Amino acid sequence: xxxxxxxxxxxxxxxxxxxxxxxxxxxxxxxxxxxxxxxxxxxxxxxxxxxxxxxxxxxxxxxxxxxxxxxxxxxxxxxxxxxxxxxxxxxxxxxxxxxxxxxxxxxxxxxxxxxxxxxxxxxxxxxxxxxxxxxxxxxxxxxxxxxxxxxxxxxxxxxxxxxxxxxxxxxxxxxxxxxxxxxxxxxxxxxxxxxxxxxxxxxxxxxxxxxxxxxxxxxxxxxxxxxxxxxxxxxxxxxxxxxxxxxxxxxxxxxxxxxxxxxxxxxxxxxxxxxxxxxxxxxxxxxxxxxxxxxxxxxxxxxxxxxxxxxxxxxxxxxxxxxxxxxxxxxxxxxxxxxxxxxxxxxxxxxxxxxxxxxxxxxxxxxxxxxxxxxxxxxxxxxxxxxxxxxxxxxxxxxxxxxxxxxxxxxxxxxxxxxxxxxxxxxxxxxxxxxxxxxxxxxxxxxxxxxxxxxxxxxxxxxxxxxxxxxxxxxxxxx
Length: 479
Fold this sequence. Notes:
This protein is of the alpha/beta class and 479 residues long. It has helices spanning 16-19, 32-40, 57-67, 78-81, 92-107, 123-129, 136-152, 165-173, 186-210, 212-215, 236-258, 265-270, 279-285, 307-310, 318-328, 351-375, 419-430, 440-443, 456-472, and strands at 9-13, 71-75, 111-117, 158-163, 218-224, 228-230, 292-296, 312-314, 334-339, 343-344, 379-385, 399-400, 404-405, 416-417. It holds the Pfam family Glyco_hydro_1.
């Protein structure tokens, strides 16, 4: 069972704040997350080092070598390059770090997929401007992006402007569980979202006009979503509510960028205070992505516990949401830019928990395969999230999402491959599911209307494959 022979891109991702550590080292400025952690978290000191990728880069590179990925998606810490956020002379140590990282990837024939903004806004911009509430930050972000294109663009062919703007707006300025920790004003949430869309569009046009002609790179924005299914598939009202639920999350950003340049009608009708785009802005924003970068994983998007009353069920069906994107946005090329699951910090060595997590990882690759082969969806790459255990935002170190285990209390912080890392390595090497020696279940050709889901039988298939790998010496249960 292969994905797309010779063409499909297999990768892994991290966020700078989650893994770099060294928050005050070598001239780095503070970010909103640095302040948030040191004011809101009891065990703030442990976040100062994290996986320590800033000083242990060679270990990250060895982990990438182990997997054999074709790309590495990482973010640049804005305040490591420019401590106040304003583009002046760059911090030389920070510049050296990212140049070394990018050069090392290119030397290994690993494509750098570079995210400009993964939530760690320089603190000065929050204090002086109010962060993303202020339109002035759009131009400052564009200046920062321009520097990155000028400095790294000769080696970077895939750019991400912003990672998951929905979570930035909602959790940073609505629920307050993310930095900068503001909460309560729904109007602010949508103002922030509005500014993030305009910031993305400005950077995209900047790149297309001044850099793409000779750098030949591609650019997008990572958008994330939950997936909702109706309790009663024959009930038109339940189906309509599910459609509205996804539009409020994914459509909020996807329709302006990948659609017609404007917000979904349902949002405009429901929210009288929703900012409006001018006709010129709609034209400017429409089509500002070279591919659809999609995030699907832990349920940061989980709605309140009213789903049963709304006739809705949360689902992990990646194949279904890929089909929704195909139908809504005219069959775009799709990069699965973030996908994975987690264990909690206490139970990650439990065999039962391990099988559940690995089964979800396997299931999602299966969904990707089915979407490509049977639904004719143009998925060209898959990003397993994340490369290694790190700081997991509001969960701190209470959950682990890495393919590689890191003992945060150790000095060496070795990257120890989990079983999921070994399994992903095998998938990458075979460009799919072991075509020569796979079990009959994995070789089967399914009909176009085959229904995929989480069942006990799928778990048994996973265990059967794992057992075969263990017995053949290709697989171990190191966590």
